[in-house]
Amino acid sequence: MKQESAAQTTLSPSPSPAPSPQRPREDGDPQSLWIFGYGSLVWRPDFSYSDSRVGFVRGYSRRFWQGDTFHRGSEKMPGRVVTLLEDREGCTWGVAYQVQGEQVSEALKYLNVREAVLGGYDTKEVTFYPQDTPDQPLTALAYVATPQNPGYLGPASEEAIATQILGSQGFSGHNLEYLLRLADFMQLCGPQAQDEHLEAIVDAVGSYLTKQAVALV
Ligand SMILES: N[C@@H](CCC(=O)N[C@@H](CS)C(=O)NCC(=O)O)C(=O)O
Protein backbone atom coordinates (compact mmCIF):
# COMPACT_ATOMS: atom_id res chain seq x y z
CA MET A 1 0.00 0.00 0.00
CA LYS A 2 1.76 3.12 -1.28
CA GLN A 3 1.79 6.11 0.99
CA GLU A 4 3.15 9.58 0.11
CA SER A 5 3.39 12.76 2.11
CA ALA A 6 0.78 15.40 1.37
CA ALA A 7 3.32 17.46 -0.55
CA GLN A 8 3.99 14.65 -3.07
CA THR A 9 0.50 13.31 -3.52
CA THR A 10 -1.74 15.15 -5.95
CA LEU A 11 -5.08 14.44 -4.36
CA SER A 12 -8.25 15.17 -6.24
CA PRO A 13 -11.32 16.24 -4.28
CA SER A 14 -13.79 13.45 -3.80
CA PRO A 15 -17.15 14.04 -5.51
CA SER A 16 -19.80 13.96 -2.89
CA PRO A 17 -22.76 12.00 -4.21
CA ALA A 18 -25.17 11.64 -1.34
CA PRO A 19 -26.54 8.11 -1.83
CA SER A 20 -29.78 7.25 -0.10
CA PRO A 21 -28.37 6.35 3.31
CA GLN A 22 -30.20 3.10 3.88
CA ARG A 23 -31.91 0.30 2.00
CA PRO A 24 -35.56 0.28 3.20
CA ARG A 25 -37.28 -3.06 3.88
CA GLU A 26 -40.63 -3.87 2.25
CA ASP A 27 -42.36 -2.23 5.25
CA GLY A 28 -40.26 0.87 4.61
CA ASP A 29 -38.11 0.47 7.72
CA PRO A 30 -34.35 0.64 7.16
CA GLN A 31 -32.82 -2.83 7.59
CA SER A 32 -29.13 -2.33 8.18
CA LEU A 33 -26.27 -0.03 7.29
CA TRP A 34 -22.51 0.10 7.73
CA ILE A 35 -20.98 3.47 8.67
CA PHE A 36 -17.22 3.96 8.07
CA GLY A 37 -15.32 6.08 10.61
CA TYR A 38 -11.76 7.25 10.00
CA GLY A 39 -11.38 10.21 12.38
CA SER A 40 -13.07 10.85 15.71
CA LEU A 41 -15.59 8.13 14.88
CA VAL A 42 -12.92 5.48 15.38
CA TRP A 43 -12.72 6.27 19.10
CA ARG A 44 -16.04 8.10 19.80
CA PRO A 45 -18.88 6.87 17.62
CA ASP A 46 -21.42 7.95 20.28
CA PHE A 47 -24.28 6.10 18.55
CA SER A 48 -25.48 2.57 19.27
CA TYR A 49 -24.45 -0.12 16.80
CA SER A 50 -24.77 -3.89 16.49
CA ASP A 51 -21.31 -4.79 15.18
CA SER A 52 -18.00 -3.20 14.24
CA ARG A 53 -14.99 -4.15 12.10
CA VAL A 54 -11.50 -2.69 11.81
CA GLY A 55 -10.43 -2.40 8.20
CA PHE A 56 -9.74 -0.04 5.33
CA VAL A 57 -11.02 1.68 2.24
CA ARG A 58 -8.96 1.82 -0.96
CA GLY A 59 -8.67 4.81 -3.29
CA TYR A 60 -8.72 7.42 -0.53
CA SER A 61 -6.12 9.12 1.62
CA ARG A 62 -6.84 10.71 4.97
CA ARG A 63 -5.67 14.28 5.43
CA PHE A 64 -5.93 16.86 8.20
CA TRP A 65 -7.28 19.35 5.67
CA GLN A 66 -10.69 20.14 7.20
CA GLY A 67 -11.03 23.13 9.52
CA ASP A 68 -13.14 22.82 12.64
CA THR A 69 -14.50 25.75 14.64
CA PHE A 70 -16.75 23.70 16.93
CA HIS A 71 -15.52 20.29 18.09
CA ARG A 72 -11.74 20.88 18.19
CA GLY A 73 -11.41 24.58 17.45
CA SER A 74 -13.08 27.96 17.61
CA GLU A 75 -13.86 30.76 15.18
CA LYS A 76 -10.73 32.53 16.48
CA MET A 77 -8.50 29.44 16.41
CA PRO A 78 -9.93 26.82 14.00
CA GLY A 79 -8.68 23.29 14.60
CA ARG A 80 -7.80 20.74 11.93
CA VAL A 81 -9.65 17.42 11.60
CA VAL A 82 -9.52 14.73 8.95
CA THR A 83 -11.30 14.14 5.72
CA LEU A 84 -10.88 11.72 2.80
CA LEU A 85 -9.46 12.72 -0.56
CA GLU A 86 -9.62 10.51 -3.62
CA ASP A 87 -6.17 9.04 -4.28
CA ARG A 88 -5.81 6.07 -6.62
CA GLU A 89 -3.02 4.56 -4.52
CA GLY A 90 -4.41 5.64 -1.17
CA CYS A 91 -5.64 3.38 1.60
CA THR A 92 -7.28 4.62 4.80
CA TRP A 93 -7.80 2.49 7.90
CA GLY A 94 -10.73 2.97 10.24
CA VAL A 95 -13.71 1.25 11.78
CA ALA A 96 -17.01 0.25 10.16
CA TYR A 97 -20.04 0.14 12.45
CA GLN A 98 -23.17 -1.83 11.59
CA VAL A 99 -26.44 -0.22 12.63
CA GLN A 100 -29.69 -2.13 12.35
CA GLY A 101 -33.40 -1.43 12.68
CA GLU A 102 -34.05 1.69 14.72
CA GLN A 103 -30.31 2.21 15.19
CA VAL A 104 -30.10 3.31 11.52
CA SER A 105 -32.32 6.38 11.78
CA GLU A 106 -30.95 7.23 15.25
CA ALA A 107 -27.33 7.08 14.02
CA LEU A 108 -28.03 9.08 10.87
CA LYS A 109 -29.95 11.73 12.79
CA TYR A 110 -27.10 12.06 15.29
CA LEU A 111 -24.35 12.07 12.66
CA ASN A 112 -26.18 14.57 10.52
CA VAL A 113 -25.85 17.09 13.33
CA ARG A 114 -22.34 16.09 14.47
CA GLU A 115 -20.80 15.67 11.02
CA ALA A 116 -22.86 17.61 8.51
CA VAL A 117 -24.36 20.54 10.39
CA LEU A 118 -21.48 21.14 12.82
CA GLY A 119 -18.63 19.73 10.74
CA GLY A 120 -19.34 20.44 7.09
CA TYR A 121 -19.18 16.75 6.10
CA ASP A 122 -21.21 15.17 3.32
CA THR A 123 -22.09 11.49 2.89
CA LYS A 124 -20.42 9.19 0.38
CA GLU A 125 -20.73 5.46 -0.28
CA VAL A 126 -17.42 3.59 0.00
CA THR A 127 -16.26 -0.02 -0.20
CA PHE A 128 -14.86 -1.20 3.13
CA TYR A 129 -12.47 -4.14 3.48
CA PRO A 130 -12.58 -5.76 6.94
CA GLN A 131 -9.06 -6.55 8.21
CA ASP A 132 -10.02 -10.18 8.91
CA THR A 133 -12.04 -10.79 5.74
CA PRO A 134 -10.74 -8.44 3.01
CA ASP A 135 -12.17 -10.82 0.41
CA GLN A 136 -15.68 -9.98 1.71
CA PRO A 137 -15.91 -6.18 1.29
CA LEU A 138 -18.87 -4.22 2.62
CA THR A 139 -20.65 -1.14 1.28
CA ALA A 140 -20.48 1.59 3.89
CA LEU A 141 -21.47 5.21 4.34
CA ALA A 142 -18.63 7.65 5.02
CA TYR A 143 -18.75 11.29 6.01
CA VAL A 144 -16.39 13.26 3.79
CA ALA A 145 -15.59 16.97 3.94
CA THR A 146 -15.21 18.01 0.30
CA PRO A 147 -13.16 21.06 -0.75
CA GLN A 148 -16.45 22.81 -1.56
CA ASN A 149 -17.48 23.02 2.10
CA PRO A 150 -16.81 26.38 3.78
CA GLY A 151 -14.67 24.85 6.52
CA TYR A 152 -12.20 23.17 4.15
CA LEU A 153 -8.62 24.39 4.71
CA GLY A 154 -6.76 22.20 2.19
CA PRO A 155 -3.08 21.24 2.10
CA ALA A 156 -0.45 22.62 4.47
CA SER A 157 2.93 21.36 5.65
CA GLU A 158 2.74 18.80 8.43
CA GLU A 159 4.67 21.24 10.60
CA ALA A 160 2.08 23.99 10.05
CA ILE A 161 -0.75 21.52 10.73
CA ALA A 162 0.99 20.42 13.96
CA THR A 163 1.32 24.02 15.12
CA GLN A 164 -2.37 24.66 14.40
CA ILE A 165 -3.40 21.52 16.26
CA LEU A 166 -1.31 22.45 19.30
CA GLY A 167 -3.06 25.81 19.53
CA SER A 168 -6.67 24.69 19.09
CA GLN A 169 -9.43 23.33 21.28
CA GLY A 170 -13.22 23.21 21.07
CA PHE A 171 -16.39 21.78 22.63
CA SER A 172 -15.21 18.18 22.25
CA GLY A 173 -11.73 18.82 23.63
CA HIS A 174 -8.22 19.72 22.53
CA ASN A 175 -7.19 19.20 18.93
CA LEU A 176 -4.07 17.38 20.17
CA GLU A 177 -6.29 14.73 21.80
CA TYR A 178 -7.97 14.22 18.41
CA LEU A 179 -4.58 13.69 16.73
CA LEU A 180 -3.16 11.37 19.40
CA ARG A 181 -6.30 9.22 19.72
CA LEU A 182 -6.25 8.67 15.97
CA ALA A 183 -2.53 7.83 16.15
CA ASP A 184 -3.26 5.37 18.98
CA PHE A 185 -5.92 3.70 16.85
CA MET A 186 -3.50 3.34 13.94
CA GLN A 187 -0.91 1.76 16.29
CA LEU A 188 -3.54 -0.83 17.29
CA CYS A 189 -4.19 -1.66 13.62
CA GLY A 190 -0.69 -3.06 13.34
CA PRO A 191 2.32 -2.55 11.04
CA GLN A 192 0.32 -3.12 7.85
CA ALA A 193 -1.63 0.08 8.54
CA GLN A 194 0.55 3.05 7.65
CA ASP A 195 -0.44 6.71 7.47
CA GLU A 196 2.64 8.81 6.73
CA HIS A 197 0.69 12.07 6.83
CA LEU A 198 -0.57 11.32 10.35
CA GLU A 199 2.83 10.07 11.49
CA ALA A 200 4.56 13.20 10.13
CA ILE A 201 2.18 15.45 12.07
CA VAL A 202 2.70 13.46 15.29
CA ASP A 203 6.49 13.69 14.76
CA ALA A 204 6.22 17.45 14.17
CA VAL A 205 4.23 17.83 17.41
CA GLY A 206 6.92 15.84 19.26
CA SER A 207 9.73 17.97 17.83
CA TYR A 208 7.93 21.19 18.71
CA LEU A 209 7.27 20.10 22.31
CA THR A 210 10.86 18.88 22.67
CA LYS A 211 12.18 22.25 21.54
CA GLN A 212 9.85 24.00 24.00
CA ALA A 213 11.02 21.73 26.82
CA VAL A 214 14.72 22.22 25.99
CA ALA A 215 14.21 25.98 25.94
CA LEU A 216 12.95 25.75 29.53
CA VAL A 217 16.11 24.03 30.81
N1 LIG B 1 -15.98 11.78 9.27
C1 LIG B 1 -14.71 11.42 9.87
C2 LIG B 1 -14.20 12.55 10.69
C3 LIG B 1 -15.18 12.79 11.78
C4 LIG B 1 -14.77 13.88 12.62
O1 LIG B 1 -13.68 13.87 13.18
N2 LIG B 1 -15.70 14.82 12.72
C5 LIG B 1 -15.60 15.85 13.69
C6 LIG B 1 -16.49 16.97 13.23
S1 LIG B 1 -15.57 18.32 12.80
C7 LIG B 1 -16.08 15.29 15.00
O2 LIG B 1 -17.06 14.60 15.03
N3 LIG B 1 -15.41 15.57 16.07
C8 LIG B 1 -15.84 15.06 17.35
C9 LIG B 1 -14.60 15.03 18.22
O3 LIG B 1 -13.64 15.67 17.81
O4 LIG B 1 -14.61 14.37 19.27
C10 LIG B 1 -14.86 10.13 10.64
O5 LIG B 1 -15.52 9.29 10.07
O6 LIG B 1 -14.36 9.91 11.74
Please describe what this structure looks like.
This protein has about 220 residues and is α+β, with helices and mostly antiparallel strands. Helix content is about 30%, strand content about 30%. It contains 4 helices and 7 strands; from the N terminus they run E-E-E-H-E-E-H-E-E-H-H. It has helices at about 100-115, 160-165, 175-190, 195-215; strands at about 30-35, 50-70, 80-100, 120-130, 140-145, 170, 175. Helix 2 packs across helix 4 (about 195-215) and helix 3 packs across helix 4. It is globular, with a radius of gyration of 17 Å. Glutathione binds near residues 40 and 41.
Q: What can be said about this structure in brief?
A:
With 217 residues, the protein is α+β, with helices and mostly antiparallel strands. It is built from 4 helices and 7 strands, in the order βββαββαββαα.
Summary tags:
disordered N terminus; 217 residues; single chain; five-stranded mixed beta barrel; two-stranded antiparallel sheet; 4 helices; globular; binds glutathione; Hypothetical upf0131 protein ytfp; alpha+beta
Q: What is this structure's SSE topology?
A:
Layout: E1 32-37, E2 51-68, E3 79-100, H1 102-117, E4 122-130, E5 138-144, H2 158-166, E6 169-170, E7 173-174, H3 175-189, H4 196-216
Parallel strand pairs: 1-5
Antiparallel strand pairs: 1-3, 2-3, 2-4, 4-5, 6-7
Organism: Castor canadensis
InterPro entries: ChaC (IPR006840), GGCT-like (IPR013024), GGCT-like_sf (IPR036568)
Catalytic activity: glutathione = L-cysteinylglycine + 5-oxo-L-proline
